[in-house]
Amino acid sequence: MGEARRWSDLSRGQQVRGIIGAVIQLALASAAWADLARRDERDVNGRKWVWAIVIAVNYIGPISYFLFGRRVD
């Protein structure tokens, strides 16, 4: 395993990509949590508290919620 790198050791491009990735992740999670909070329990596939935890898992959580967690009639 490699040596730990500091933020200042990263190139400007790597720093920008890291920030963009973090912003996208936070936007996805925020949108998913907001949608989940507004939905009634019967409009969600499964329990809301489980989806709230799943959404916290990197990109896959919010995307999974939007694809599989919401009931669309």
From TrEMBL:
Cellular localization per UniProt: Cell membrane
Topological category with respect to the lipid bilayer: Multi-pass membrane protein
InterPro entries reported for this sequence: CLS_N
UniProtKB keywords: Cell membrane, Membrane, Transmembrane, Transmembrane helix
Domain Cardiolipin synthase N-terminal stretches: 27-70
Major location category of this protein: membrane
A Pfam family of this chain: PLDc_N
A GO cellular-component term linked to this record: plasma membrane
Annotated transmembrane regions: 16-37, 49-68
Keyword Cell membrane: yes
Keyword Metal-binding: no
Name the record gives this protein: Cardiolipin synthase N-terminal domain-containing protein
Taxonomic source organism: Agromyces kandeliae
UniProt lineage: Bacteria, Bacillati, Actinomycetota, Actinomycetes, Micrococcales
